[in-house]
Amino acid sequence: MAKSFKVKLIKSTIGATKDQKDTVRCLGLKKLQQEKTIADNPANRGQIFKVQHLLEVTVEK
Predict the structure, then answer these.
(1) Of 7, 10, 26, 36, which sits 20 to 30 A from 43 (CA to CA)?
(2) Beta partners for 37?
(3) Domain boundaries, position 47
């Protein structure tokens, strides 16, 4: 299992549901092209899965 993920917001949240917008905010992403490193745990994996169409995800070790 990876120790962390680097997530980057590549698509706008305009037109996304409120739930998806809230999930992107909880991941710490506010603007397009912004990147954050988040820990690998089941909660964060679920958030990434929910908005995977808006993100670019890379695995870090």
Answers:
(1) 10
(2) 6
(3) 4-60
- For residue 24, count other CB atoms closer than 10 A to its CB: 22
Task: Give dist(CA 54, CA 52) in Å, integer.
Answer: 5
CATH number at 32 reads 3.30.1390.20
Kindly report the number of other CB atoms within 10 A of residue 59's CB atom: 11
If one counts the domains in the chain, the total is 1
Q: Which of 34, 42, 46, 40 is nearest to 7 (CA)?
A: 34
The structure's pTM equals 0.90
> What's residue 28's pLDDT?
96
Question: Contact 1/53 with Cβ under 8 angstroms?
Answer: no
